[in-house]
Structures are given as structure tokens and as C-alpha cells.
Amino acid sequence: MRITKLGEEILRQVAVPVKEEEINDEFRSLIAEMFETMDAANGVGLAAPQVNINKRFFVLMADDDVRRVFINPQIISTSGDLVDYEEGCLSIPKIYEVIKRPSKVTVQALDENGKKFTIEAEGFLARIIQHEYDHLEGIVFIDKGDPDFAKQTEEIMQKRSKRYLEKIKEKEAKARKIAAKKAAKENKHNQETE
After folding, report:
1. Could you give the percent of the chain with pLDDT greater than 70?
2. Closest Cα to residue 11, out of 64, 65, 50?
3. Fewer Cβ atoms within 10 A, N terminus or C terminus of the chain?
4. Mean pLDDT throughout 9-30?
């Protein structure tokens, strides 16, 4: 799966709830694919908008190595104490910032089988849940930090995106040239054999 990058509209949209009837085998294979994508990118969490799906769910694996799925999560409560921790994001590669978040969080959600559960998380798990939940609200971690840093990051990502699009156009142009040459060669060959 392709991971969306900051600057793509979907990362700023509020995700739509998953309907109960959508939680089926096809949906579970999508979740498995998200875990594969997250693992391949060395991530610890991945929200649906990050793979261009505007739905309210995310996957994660904290330091306890348990794969967790949160569908239509709701944060019920957070602790009053805030903790600093350097965060990064697969949608904003190679950029990190220290972000304050509550040390504990209580969340209610559905699992990959549509069963309701409640989890009280703390530490790293609590942080990942809050980070991924933000993605469902159209929020990225830089929004929670220094506004100047956020502005700089947005500019950096715009430049990266522009370069990426230019490279794609170059590749497409090259592919068209090669295809045209092949077609001309084939055409010439066909005329000679007639």
C-alpha cells in the first residue's frame, strides 16, 4: 500500500465511521495489508487515511509486540499529566518533534471481528493510540507542537511532493518514449515482412 504524505487532502479530513456490515473477511485482509505496510516502513501505527482510506480505523503494535486493531475508536478519558516524547510519522518521513500528550488514555473501539472492547493504556501504547486517533480527526503530530516548526515542515513536504511529482512525470515521459520506439520498430518490422 502507498503511504499518503503530508500535503495530500485525505490527511486533513475527518474520517467516516466504519459500518458494522463492512467488518468482514475483505476488511480483515485490508487490515492485514496495513500491518504489512506498517512493518515494511518500520512504523508502530498506521491509520486508514495514511493509506488513502477515509475510514475511522487504525492498526498498531507497541513495544509489547501485540497487534491491535481499533475500529471507530472513541477516547473516553485521558490523564491530566502530560509527557514529552519525540514523535515521527510515516506520512511525514524523517521529521521528528517532541510532543506533549497525556500519559494515560482510555479508549473504546471495535476489534477486527466487530467486538466492542475498552482499553486503558499508558506509556508508549497510549501515545501511539493518541497519535493514530488524531489521524482520524485530520490532525498530524506537528499540529500539536511548535507552530513555526509545523509551518516549516509543511513547506519541506510541499517541496518533497513537488520533486516526487516531477520524478513521476519524468518516468512517465521516458516510458512513453520507450513505448513509441518499440511501436515504431514493430511497425517497421511488420511492413518489412508483408
Report:
1. 99
2. 50
3. C
4. 96
